[in-house]
Design a protein that fits this description.
Elements lengths: L2 H15 L4 E4 L6 H13 L3 E4 L3 H15 L3 E5 L3 H4 L2 H10 L3 E7 L25 E4 L4 H13 L4 E6 L32 E2 L5 E5 L5 H10 L3 E3 L15 H4 L3 H4 L3 E5 L6 H7 L5 E5 L14 E3 L4 E2 L7 H22 L4 H12 L5 E4 L3 H9 L10 E3 L10 H11 L5 E6 H6 L15 E7 L17 H9 L6 H7 L3 E5 L2 H8 L6 E7 L5 H10 L1
Parallel strand pairs: 1-2, 1-3, 3-4, 4-6, 5-6, 7-13, 8-9, 8-10, 10-11, 11-12, 14-15, 14-16, 16-17, 17-19, 18-19
Helix pairs in contact: 1-2, 1-6, 3-5, 3-14, 12-13, 12-18
């Protein structure tokens, strides 16, 4: 066999040994050796192959598969501009520490700088924070070593694979991915965790990806837990639903110490809190290697601390009582105010996520509406609520949701997005007839534009003349027609109560539920919530 075929077989076998079970492919010519090897491995049951015609969609699908399965996932592109379309997904993986393995096919290095077709300098194209190994077609050992390192790494890795002709040869894999060597093992080194004294009035801020350790620490310290929906910690007895509103109350002013874990990004009150220079702020380094510290006032630590004893001065009890009162006030307002419909939709989605369920939530208004309306779930029911919060972009969310639903065995898989987020990745619904399809319901809250901007500075009356065109961006697109074009099941929902009933169905395949809402009163609604 040729050097390119040997290299492709070795890479697939190394991925399988390293625990990779899903690989996403965007088709091309230069990547043919690896595409054929992956097709053979898929036919043998050694890996599960997913094919997408759009590289950006492929990248976010791979990211979703990694989030849903908690395993490293590889994505393959051909050479040239195809590689660059992975950049948004790779950047998201950098900031959340997701093990995404980019297999970028390339021409031989000797062709770089010669004007050869579809050839550019792909080495290190994603920047300094993404390790890149440039592998010659004859260097099988380097490729195997690079895969072994990539599957262990928290964050993305690029393997730039130079393939020489001939590119097309026949070969087969067996179900265990042979030819294969031994398994690759490795456990992370043990933590050395700081032990904090009780006493200061402490709150624990749990941002995206914080995980259940944040909940356990809050309960041990008897501290309020201010957990975002995608934190993985908004469960149990100490999570405070309406923390975003309470931070602007006297309770927020009495905070003396903050522990920040995960990546909190949703609200200005939280950003102001963790940026205060007059209190102690401790920020725990996240999987993306960053300590969230926008005010540059925090003490950075590598691991989540522990605590000597639970506080017993009534601090948490004050927060619990205030949260109970505020939650009722919010629910009453949302039920009575016609402008509250978006929050009613969020509440219906939150209530529909069962134990062992999956919810992928889009950025902008949906995740913030969930933050206000989601009551903390009981601990131990293993819900997975995720979003692309590393850079908080709206791109690739449909593909991320499909990937997460394929990567995780869930009792029910849901996604909740706005119309612009849905339109930004409607290519994610373009699946070939042989591609794996999850059972996934996508709820689209359609307000014909960008509602979140109405609640920001540019939504003020002084910008009314320019707002609708450059921020509101109405589009008038028929989501029904888009779904028909991609043979995706579609239903329009006119009542949040009806939405709850539909979400309880065990629907098969991918379906879209469109709920029309208005953004005309979003700024007024935000003001009314704040006034509570």
């Amino acid at each position: 066999m040729s050097g390119s075929t040997d290299l492709a077989i070795a890479v697939v076998a190394a991925l399988r040994r390293g625990g990779v079970t899903d690989v996403v492919l965007a088709p091309g010519s230069r990547s043919a050796p690896l595409a054929l090897a992956l097709h053979s491995a898929d036919a043998a049951g050694a890996v599960r192959l997913h094919v997408r015609i759009d590289e950006r969609t492929a990248g976010f699908l791979a990211l979703g598969l990694a989030k849903g399965s908690h395993r490293p996932v590889a994505v393959l592109t051909t050479s040239g501009s195809a590689v660059t379309h992975l950049h948004p997904a790779v950047l998201e993986a950098v900031h959340v520490g997701e093990p995404l393995i980019v297999l970028s096919a390339d021409r031989p290095a000797a062709l770089r700088g010669t004007g050869a077709n579809q050839t550019t300098d792909q080495v290190g194209i994603f920047g300094a924070r993404v390790p890149c190994v440039d592998v010659e077609a004859s260097d099988v050992q380097a490729a195997v070593a690079a895969v072994a390192a990539a599957v262990r790494r928290r964050g993305p890795t690029q393997l730039n694979l130079q393939f020489t002709e001939p590119l097309v040869e026949s070969h087969r894999f067996t179900a265990d991915g042979t030819p294969a060597g031994g398994h690759i093992d490795g456990e992370p080194a043990g933590d050395q965790r700081e032990c904090l004294a009780s006493g200061p009035r402490t709150v624990l801020v749990a941002g995206d990806g914080a995980g259940p350790r944040a909940r356990l620490l809050a309960e041990r310290g008897n501290w309020p837990l201010l957990a975002e929906p995608t934190s993985g910690a908004r469960t149990g007895s100490h999570a405070v639903r309406t923390y975003r509103l309470l931070l602007d109350s006297p309770l927020g002013k009495h905070v003396e110490r903050v522990i920040v874990t995960g990546h909190p990004t949703l609200s200005r009150p939280v950003t102001r809190l963790i940026s205060r220079g007059d209190i102690e702020v401790i920020s725990v380094r996240g999987p993306g290697g960053i300590c969230t510290d926008p005010g540059r006032v925090a003490r950075h630590v590598e691991h989540l601390p522990t605590v000597t004893a639970a506080d017993s001065d009534g601090w948490f009890e004050e927060w619990r009582a205030a949260d109970d009162t505020m939650s009722k006030a919010v629910d009453d307002l949302v039920a009575a105010d016609p402008a509250g419909r978006p929050l009613q939709v969020a509440a219906a989605v939150a209530a529909a996520v069962p134990g062992e369920g999956l919810l992928v939530v889009g950025s902008s208004s949906p995740v913030r509406d969930l933050d206000v309306m989601t009551a903390p779930y009981p601990a131990g029911q293993r819900r997975l609520i995720i979003g692309n919060r590393g850079l908080s972009g709206i791109d690739g969310t449909v593909s991320t949701a499909i990937g997460a639903a394929l990567g995780r065995r869930s009792s029910r898989s849901l996604a909740y997005v706005g119309d612009l987020t849905f339109l930004h990745d409607c290519n994610g619904l373009v699946l070939g007839p042989d591609e794996p399809r999850p059972d996934l319901t996508i709820v689209v809250a359609n307000d014909d534009g960008g509602a979140i901007f109405a609640t920001l500075d540019q939504g003020g009356p002084e910008f009314a003349r320019s707002f609708e065109r450059v921020f509101g961006t109405p589009h008038g697109v028929s989501l029904r027609a888009l779904c028909e074009a991609t043979a995706t099941a579609y239903e329009r929902v006119d009542d949040p109560a009806e939405l709850g009933t539909l979400l309880a169905d065990d629907a098969t395949g991918i379906r879209v539920l469109e709920v029309s809402i208005s953004r005309a009163d979003r700024r007024t609604l935000a003001d009314r919530l704040h006034s509570l």
